[in-house]
Amino acid sequence: MPVPLEDHVRQILLENDRGTKFYRAVKEGWSALGQLYPQRHRWRRKSSARHMVWEEVVQRLFDVAAEDEHIVPIEHRDTVSLIVENEVLFRLKFADTSLITRNYPTPEAEEFDNHDVDLYGFSGLQRVKLCYVPDEYETSLLWTGIAASNKGKFLWKIELEDAGAVAPPARLPFPEEEIDTTRFARLKKPADEKQDKKKDNG
Q1: How far from the centroid of its chain's Cα atoms is residue 61's Cα?
Q2: Residues 146 and 23: beta-carbon distance below 8 Å
Q3: How far is CA 128 from its chain centroid?
Q4: pLDDT digits (tens, 9 = 90+) for 163-199
Q5: Is 41 exposed, middle or buried (0-12, 13-18, 19+ CB in 10 A)?
């Protein structure tokens, strides 16, 4: 199982405008919560709203998949994943600002995060999370994007917006190494110094 590669996932998102479509699915699914459940503030379980948002977003991701022959939705273990181009497996996750999903470190989350093993009967797929991060009171979304980690260690993230994947920040070039020429200077040995003195004394 390969560790997920940021550049490869970016290319996957770029094709067929998938980055934009994934972002809109999350955004519209989140908005649907307020429209369809105006009395949600009366719910006693905070997780109820999260479950309903998940359902709304997943339904929209299925709509995206229906228009893209290279996206295959897979229902398994009471959840849903999207396999794109038969290369990358995306899994929708509610996350906090550290981009650690709320069910980590459950055995299932740790298993998903371990790229030494294949999961769900698929081999060779890169696994990443399509994350949505709400504010403290879960009234609005702070961030939507793709996150990759390996055995609990954060690897990279790709922010999504209406125009697709946000370009990564420019990497500053490494400064050219200054060569210390003094280290190439030949040091005289004591014997050489004695011979020079004899020549001077003639």
Answers
A1: 18
A2: no
A3: 6
A4: 889 988 766 555 555 655 555 555 555 555 555 555 5
A5: exposed
